[in-house]
Structure formats: C-alpha cells, structure tokens
Specification:
With 326 residues, the chain is of the alpha+beta class. The chain has helices at 8-19, 39-45, 92-136, 142-170, 182-199, 219-238, 292-302, and strands at 24-29, 34-37, 61-66, 72-80, 83-90, 178-181, 203-207, 214-217, 246-253, 257-264, 306-312, 315-323. The protein is 44% helix and 24% strand. Strand 4 and strand 5 form a beta hairpin. Helix 3 (92-136) runs antiparallel to helix 4 and helix 6 (219-238) packs antiparallel against helix 7 (292-302). It is elongated, with a radius of gyration of 29 Å.
C-alpha cells in the first residue's frame, strides 16, 4: 500500500493510532488511487466491488450500503483539493436494534391481542351463562342446570389450557446443558416418529453423519423440539396434494455448530405469516395452541442455539443450530 512520505517513526505512530480506531479511514488522490488506509477501512474494501460509491459529486454524506458480509456501513465522503477523504463506521448493530425494537413491539401487540381474544371469549361465555342462571335459576330443571355447569367447566378448562401453555413458555429457559450425542438423539426420535410418518403415506429419508457428533444441549428439551418440528412437517404433508410427500432429516457441521435440517415437500409457509410463526398463540391449525414453535424456539435459544424455519423451492425446511461440544 502506498504511504504518504513522512519520517518513518512518525508514520508508524500515526498508523498505530489510526489502526486502533473503531472507524475506517481512507485517503484517495485525485486519480482515485488509495494513498492511506487503516485496518477497519481495509476490511471493508474486501467486500466492496465498486469504489465509485465513495466518489460521487456532490460528496456523499452518511450514505448507507450493505456489503457482501451482510454488514450495514455508514460513511461520509469529503472532496478535497487533493482527492477524497472517507470515514466509515459499522452501524449494523444500530439498525439491528431498531429492527428488533419493531419486532418486539409487533410481538407485544400480537400477544396482547391474542390473550385478549383467547381469554376474553371464555370469560364472556362464563359471564353470560352465569347471568342466565342467576335470572332463571328457579325455572331451570336439574338437567338444564347441569347443561350450563358442563358448559362453564368446558370454558374453565380452556382457560386452564391457555395458562398451562403460558407456563410452559415462561419455563423454557430452565434447561440443563449436557454433552449430548446428536446422532443417538436423532435416531431415537426418528425411530419413535417413523410409524406415524409412514402410516400417513409420507416417505422418510435420513442422512446422519458416520462419525458421532456431540453438542451442548438439554437432551429432553432437544427431543421435544425435534419431535415438534417433525410433527409440523407431518401435518403440513398429510393434507397436501403434492405429487411426492417426503421428509428429509440430515446434519451438517462447521467449526462451531452442528446444524440439523428437517425438510419437507409440503406447501411451505405463506409469505404473509412468515414473520409470525414464532409468535405466541399464533397458529394456522384449527385446534392448535400456537405455542409449539414459540416454545421450541425458546428452548433452543436457552441452549445457546438457533432455530430458523424458511421455505425452499419444494416446501419448508427447519434448521436447528447447536454448539459443538469440544
């Protein structure tokens, strides 16, 4: 890299200072040739295909772009008589925080709306039934009273189920991390679920690593999550009119994570609900509690892992990432 000609010791001190800064600094001459840059700026250059973004007229100030490393960078570019002076800063976290804030607000709005609906309906029914009983109790036969009491008990049971679901969700953080044999866990879950899958005319294909893989996980919680994800795939396929009903389970690893994939050839996730599938009480199933995926994501997060569900060209795929036990 060409350097501005200075006393060698002074130049070294200047570069040490520049390299210690959390911002990127780049100086270009009038021919747009890089004269000086610090470490942060050089990192950024690796992901930029076209430097012309820095040399706009009039100078670009606080313009944003997304690099190939999925980082959002803000920069200010200043024109000088001798060239351009560019300052850059990674502002990914700022934008992520704003995005997360919006998601939290949307989640809270959804949660309050669903609780109001799920709890409100039984309460209204109970209130109405008690009012009728109070007004007409003298004219009610024993059979009629029992009919109203049974109705009240059904509504109370529904409220209790909602409370149980909320309790399960609030307790998801209580996991005990152990050294878990991933292959053994998957083989056990698949063995239990295999009959249910095949009975519904769904093909099952698994491709587990030949070597044993150990992850950091709670074995009971992991079993629950994998079973839930497989059952979601079964339900997506059993009423699907696709030409081929298939569930595939396979594992990939990198230096840090083991990634479990559960892939199906179902209808996939409608775009309009994709962002809401992990919301509490959100369900497209007639009798679903809407807590299965919420609890699953909570359990995996509590294990310091990640759970993602997305579409692929032929259906949907769930990805569970767990840290390797080293």
């Amino acid at each position: 890299m060409p350097m501005i000609e200075r006393d060698g010791h002074s130049c070294q001190l200047i570069m040490e200072v520049l390299n210690s800064l959390p911002i990127g600094i780049g100086i270009f001459d009038n021919n747009r040739k890089l004269l000086l840059s610090n470490q942060e700026f050089r990192k950024l250059l690796k992901s930029i295909e076209n430097l012309e973004i820095f040399f706009k007229e009039p100078p670009a100030v606080n313009e944003l772009f997304i690099s190939s490393m999925s980082k959002i960078t803000g920069f200010s570019s200043y024109r000088t008589p001798h060239g351009w002076f560019v300052i850059t800063k990674d502002i990914t976290s700022k934008h992520t925080d704003e995005s997360e804030d919006r998601k939290i607000l949307e989640l809270l709005d959804h949660l309050f709306s669903m609780v109001r609906h799920e709890v409100g309906n039984p309460i209204n029914t109970i209130k109405f039934s008690l009012s009728v009983m109070k007004e007409d109790i003298d004219s009610f036969s024993k059979e009629k009273l029992l009919e109203y009491i049974d109705r009240l008990l059904e509504e109370i049971e529904q409220l209790e189920e909602i409370l149980r679901a909320m309790k399960r969700y609030s307790n998801y953080g209580y996991v005990v991390i152990k050294k878990v044999n991933l292959n053994e866990t998957l083989r056990k879950v698949l063995r239990i679920m295999e009959n249910e899958i095949l009975m519904k005319d769904i093909s099952l294909k698994s491709n587990l690593p030949s070597r044993e893989i150990f992850v950091k996980a709670d074995p009971t919680a992991l079993n629950q999550v994998l079973t839930n994800l497989l059952r979601n795939s079964i339900e997506a396929l059993e009423n699907h009119q696709g030409y081929k009903k298939l569930i595939e389970v396979f594992v990939k690893t990198d230096e840090e994570f083991a990634r479990i994939y559960i892939k199906d050839t179902g209808p996939g996730i409608p775009e309009e609900i994709r962002e809401k599938i992990f919301f509490p009480f959100f369900s497209t199933k007639r009798n679903g509690s809407g807590m299965g995926l919420t609890i699953s994501k909570g359990l995996i997060t509590a294990m310091d892992g990640k759970l993602d569900i997305r579409n692929h060209p032929d259906g949907a795929i769930a990805e569970v990432s767990l840290k390797l036990w080293k």
